[in-house]
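Entry:
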Amino acid sequence: MLGSLETWRKVVLWLLVASMWLVVIEPAPYELIFVLAFLLFLPAGGLKVPLVSLPLVFFLVLYNLGGAVGLEGALDDKISVWFTIISYYMAVTGLFFCFLVTSDTNARMEIIRSGYITAGVIGSLIGILTYFDVGGTAAAWAPMGRAQGTFKDPNVFAPFLVPPFVFLAQDILLRRSRRPILAFIAILIIALALFLAFSRGAWVNLVGSGILLVVLTLLLAPSRALRNRVIFLSASGALALAVAGVVALQVPQIRTIFEIRASLSQSYDVGETGRFGSQIASLPRVLTQPGGMNPRHFRYIYGQDPHNVYLNAFASYGWLGGFAFFALVIMTIWAGWRAIRTPTPWQHHAIAIYAPLVAVVLQGVQIDIDHWRHFYLLLGCMWGLFAATIAYEVQQRRGPASAIGQKSYS
């Protein structure tokens, strides 16, 4: 027997998320598997479009419509056209995860988390091995002297590792892991790769995500025993990571790069032609051109990308896209907050998605996140969890359903 449709759906969904570690080739396996996953989940019962997810649909459409309008004057520019097409595709993946998670929520979130943790561990191992030039791989796979795995940029690789770190940390805090020793080893592997990427933004992302995870868990924990456990394990984990960092800095190769990267401002940040100078110089143009500068034309004018997703939204997608992206972020933070403060069987999933999602949209102030696969995965899952939560509340008001009546932290 080839297995049921639902079995194949679960397998392909896991493979889709687990393949996210390999992005250096184009199209990446993720893109190819996504097509298969989309086709498998299209039949009845696979994807549901809840009314409460319409803000996500609406703002993503407006955002990309702004890009389409801006593209009108740059149709002969292949880079701009491809940039816009990728934006459309990313929006579709976000909607896919939203509609997917709306039903069979717990089971599908467990698959997504498992696949993402697998991708994080594989990506981290490759990043660590190539950083230390195992098999002479550093020249090709760590050309900047920083771990980047199979990603093109360590500043994208490192933030990609934050969500699986959060998933594992939560599993340990809540005793959800069936193999706690393996979970602990996995979190150390991911933490080392994150450190060796020397991405300041990702370090802040990780700290912010971790603090949010702990604070939200403490606020929503139903018992003092659980709160005490969370406080003890969080303090112990932070201390262990700090000690591990100090030990790692004893390696001259690591210490040298750390001393350079630990500076709050780098040479490419300052000056009229630096990152901050280009951002300031672009503001008059952004404020006086409702149609934007055409998709990805910021780098043609100022010699580099905006390194700020909010500025890029206005520059590449015009006022329509810029305001739509701002509204999407604000609505997502509100929807996520609504989902995490409602006792549901998937409340812990909502917290685990919300923490790194808030951190990454804040990191967007210093980097362009609009084409990050994992950003759209988090975005879609958050809205799917929100939709599932609203449906759960409606069902509870009509009468508790025994099949889904258990609490997350029970």
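Confidence is low (pLDDT under 50) at residues 401-408.
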